[in-house]
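pasting for the record
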Amino acid sequence: MRSAICLILLGSAAAQLRKPDAETMIDAGRRHFELRCAMCHGADGMGGERAPGVAGREGERMRSEQDLRDLISKGVPEAGMPGFRLGAEELRQIVAFVRSLTMPAIERAVAGNAARGRDFFFGHGGCAACHIVEGRGGVGGPDLSNLGRRRTLAEIEQALRAPESRRLPGYRVARVELRDGTTIRGFVRNESNYDLQLQEPGGKLHLLRAADIVRVIREERSAMPAVNVTAGEMSDLIAYLSRLSEESVTARHAGESIAAPFDAKPEDWPTYHGHPSGNRHSPLAQIHTGNVASLAPKWIYPIRAAERLEVTPVVVDGVMYVTSVNQAYALDARTGREIWSWRRPRTPGVIGDAAGGINRGVAVWRDRVFLVTDHAHLIALNRFTGAFLWDVEMADYREHYGATSAPLVVKDLVISGTSGGDEGVRGFVAAYKATTGERVWRFWTIPLPGEPLSETWQGKAIEHGCASAWLTGTYDPELDLLYWPTGNPCPDFNGDERRGDNLYSDSVLVLKAESGELRWHYQFTPHDVHDWDAQQTPMLIDAEFGGRPRKLLAQANRNGFFYVLDRTNGELLLAKPFVQKLTWASGVGRDGRPQVLPGTAPTPEGTRVCPSIEGATNWMSTAYHPSTGLFYVMALENCNIYVKSSAWWEPGKSFYGGAVRAVPGEEPVKYLRAIDLKTGSIAWEYRQTGPGNTWGGVLSTDGGLIFFGDDSGAFAAVDAATGKPLWHFHTNQNWRASPMTYTVDGKQHVAVAAGGSILSFALP
């Protein structure tokens, strides 16, 4: 007679038993279990003929220790499990043993020598030929980097001795015969009645449609042979594997990339901005003004537990990479089907923007994909399998740092800043080796007291001055220069203790990519007291200006002015308002400094100033269309009442030094505006209906289209030359992300994150 589960698996929230008393109790409990329970559940707790297993990490684990005691004592009579009358000590020992079967291996004491086990793994054992650990190894088997936290000791030993007994999803081997006569052998990562994802042991991924397949021949044997070694070698290997956790993988251990660089193709969207220049313009034109009215949803991918996605998808070789906070996913860009995923728990104690569950995307290089975490770490994963490669701390989150934006890859460097720009951090931009995560250089956005430029900070606020560099910058490969925007100074609304320009807040930094050496900078808002950081994309454009070809930098700034600079030397070429509600300055002088109007600083009573704290625009993406010569931006017409206070920096709190409130009777209005690059004049505008509080950016294409998220919740397209509405699709979402486009299998798609899902659109 079959019986139901006798013992329920418990969660790690309960107190964990430890050596020496814990292991002694576990050993005693094992002997009692073998006498009383092994007949049904197997001596190792992995299951027997009469009842399922009680070991492993897959079952219910949310019962308390007392619940487990009651379960053993009372049984489950209706399921065929009797209760057991046990002495208190015997019951305690059996509970300890059963809990050990569900305990992560890293929490158990082991007898083997982990150092010898590591030598075996990477040496004559040959394990690293298929498995990634410590940032190096093959991709033919599962990533073992976090094995000690994901598996129990029993599961690890069983996988080594009898790999046939438990093959993970995604690692079943098949040979697929295709209609073109070829045959491919690999792991079936995912499949449905409509498609199949097959990955060769070397990592090459094949995204196959059912129509392409003649036959699938499935192999019954595991790709991994049983490990046949001496008892001592097995003990050492288990000791090594049981200690593995992602936290132990650092830049000191990570290995070199072996894959060749991928060639970015017009059909791809290989970076956060689509191009290192920051210009979200695509040469794709299959979808155009004449047929966009037929655009329809192609697929939807919901991201679990995501509330407000701000990610821009990246597409390389038909694979889409998307993120949420501490999560990364690889999707089949044709269908939205998941290929792999990587997740890490959110970090308790993070404050500021990073605490809101924000992540804007990835960077891709060779066989790697990079993302940041909420607690200011930079992570590298294998882009073919999602295997964990390395983890480096950019800054200590306990000092209020976080990270939210997509990194930027330049040559073999991964470049990122951090968030925390309202929490009193000291901002910086840093570059890390793509191969190992080792930091190559770091540029601080605020000097230390006594250093050069510290005279631009008169007062004690320099100690918590902010100016974080939290948005993705841009890169000019010809000049080999990085252009990185910086944030506001702190306290945001009170400048009494930071008199002066407060460099390098509210600026664009121009850095030598290989060294981080500063070439020049431009400060848009010196001594900012309205929280108008410069975290708008510093777009790089090659175009005629003033009658001759020039290398330009264009930015629609949060302070309400549209700027055009010569990006070779920082010369100001144009500064003109792109919103009507601008009351804080009369213009920008020839010296590049704003002409600030009196009476516009915050006061304890409150001062009405335009733009509002959200800015005339914000971090949402902009675009430039080379055929129209127009720069496209989401513009907000709104004002606020700015209030100053004497509140000072406190650990764990934001450092505003004041607040803002709405102006009674005034309603914000959002516009999609097209700005003439050469004159700064508004060529056309598209007024939106809605609350004015959405954060979606724009995309331009050679199909003559501008795609954007409308304040009403619709995803929409207008004519790039005229602003004429051409298409919309209601998503009923408050936009937090910017769209992108790509081509796969000859069909152009337009994709955008809406709410907690990725949506992809294409023509029928």
